[in-house]
Amino acid sequence: MFDLKSHLRALVNAHGPSGHEAPVRALLREAWAGLVDEFREDGLGSLIGIRRATHPLETPRRIMLAAHMDEIALMVTDLRDGFLRVQKVGGMDHRILLAQPVLVHGRETLPGVVATKPP
């Protein structure tokens, strides 16, 4: 049986910044293996799962479920006085970032928080 809660938790905890969604794609491929007839990937790395009808109709119906695999991400551009300077990867509103917890991936994964200089 498909455990939706566990599946969503695994997806939310997977790391997949724009352009590097392979871990999320692998998770989806594994979770949906028994639910679809065929997988395809397009040139941009999108995962497409195809499920064919068991009783084809004269006028076939189609349903598409679409979602993003990437997540909000930042790229470290500089290190000054123990603080990381970052740049956005993909589109996001920078105003939502202050005080957000982050994970910094490097030789080891470290926890952090987004901060700014006082005015």
Description:
The longest helix is centred in the first third of the chain and has 11 residues, at 22-32. This protein has 2 helices and 6 strands. It has a two-stranded antiparallel sheet. The protein has a two-stranded antiparallel sheet with strand order 3-4. Strands 5-6 form a two-stranded antiparallel ribbon. The chain is of the alpha+beta class. The N and C termini lie far apart (54 Å).
**H/E element order:** HHEEEEEE
Name the overall outline: elongated
Low-confidence stretches: none
- Rg estimate, integer Å: 19 Å
* Average pLDDT metric: 89
Strand order of the largest sheet: 1-2
Query: Distance between termini?
Result: 54 Å
Backbone structural class: alpha+beta
Tell me the number of helical segments per DSSP (H or I, 4 or more residues long).
2
Q: Which oligomeric form is depicted?
A: single chain
Number of strands: 6
Helix content, binned percent = 10-25%
Question: What is the percentage of strand-forming residues?
Answer: 25-35%
Biggest pleated sheet:
2 strands, antiparallel
Strand and helix map with partners:
Blueprint: H1 4-13, H2 22-32, E1 38-41, E2 47-50, E3 73-80, E4 83-89, E5 101-104, E6 110-113
Antiparallel strand pairs: 1-2, 3-4, 5-6
